[in-house]
Amino acid sequence: MSKILISILLGLLSVVMLSAAPASAQASRTWVSGVGDDANPCSRTAPCKTFAGAISKTAAGGEIDALDPGGFGAVTITKSITIDGGGGQGGQVAGILASGTVGINVNAQPSDVIIIRNLSINGVGTGTNGINFLAGSSLEIENVKIMNFSANCVRFQPTVKANLIITNSALDRCLGGGLSSSATSGGTNLVQINRSTIYRSSVAVTSGANSSVQIWSSVISNNGVGGVLANAATGQVSLDQSTVTNNGFGVQAQASGIVRLTNTSVIANTGTGLFANGGQILTWQNNWVAGNAPDGARTGTIVPQ
């Protein structure tokens, strides 16, 4: 009799364990949809409604994809994750409306990698920062448009240095600035901006303490205060094959900051084109600087190696 009872108990225990497993498991890939529900498991056939709802059901290192067009809400990221608003097919399908708040807040672990791609992030004028990066190893932004925020489109100011890559993206109409980069400790932020546009903000790019920003094949235009600013002794910006036009100042180096230019046009800015304001502006002597008010001057040249 006791053997039969033990067998029954073991069978019941197995059923309980099997039924509990799916509830606690996290999928490596989840989905959101405009007709989803955050009570769902976030599978392709039963998607969630918001990024915030999906992220808790997505394993570290996993991916959240959008099935269809829609606004999927602001989200806080605390682990390695990919958010793809193109449904894995490319193009921008999904969006985030972040009225009065941060669009994407990143406060992850030191080794975590965060990838944001194929997404539109709109602060509708009252959102604070489009993406606010506080901690993590690296952030990759690809084919993303960030616009209409009261502070920065991208605020990249980790306590400990990290890496940022912005590719084929647009930062537009952010009152505090397009990109602001600095780090408190642990080395130097390494920031790369490629094939992107930063426009209609206050200062397009600010490289502060412990920050090295490299910009190539990009356009910086129509920023009211200025284009590119290195404003700390450990803040640097390098521009290659880029255009800085119709801003307030063109490029400025202050507080011992350094700006380097090669194959770059600094043209038709309403303020000083090359503004060495207590810093250094170094060129390869192969740039086009014209039509600024005034054009300004470099402080030194870069010797080809």
3D architecture notes:
The chain is mainly beta and 305 residues long. The protein has a single domain (63-301), classed as 3 Solenoid (Pectate Lyase C-like), CATH 2.160.20.10. 9% of the residues lie in helices and 49% in strands. The chain is built from two helices and 29 strands. The protein has helices at 2-24, 51-55, and strands spanning 27-32, 58-66, 70-71, 75-77, 81-84, 94-97, 104-107, 113-127, 131-135, 138-149, 152-156, 163-167, 170-174, 177-181, 189-194, 197-199, 203-207, 211-216, 219-221, 226-230, 235-240, 243-245, 249-254, 258-262, 265-267, 274-277, 280-283, 288-290, 300-301. The chain has a 20-stranded parallel sheet that branches. A nine-stranded parallel sheet has the order 4-7-9-11-14-17-20-23-26. Helix 2 (51-55) links the parallel strand 1 and strand 2 (58-66). The protein is elongated. It starts with a helix and ends with a strand. Residues 8-23 have low confidence and may be disordered.
Provide the descriptors you would attach to this structure in a database record.
49% strand, elongated, 20-stranded parallel sheet, nine-stranded parallel sheet, 2 helices, Pectate Lyase C-like, 305 residues, 29 strands, mainly beta
State the gist of this model.
This protein has 305 residues and is mainly beta.
Query: Cα-atom Rg, whole angstroms?
Result: 24 Å
Proportion of beta-strand residues: over 45%
Q: Could you name the CATH class?
A: Mainly Beta
Unreliable runs: 8-23
**CATH topology call:** Pectate Lyase C-like
Specify the overall morphology. elongated
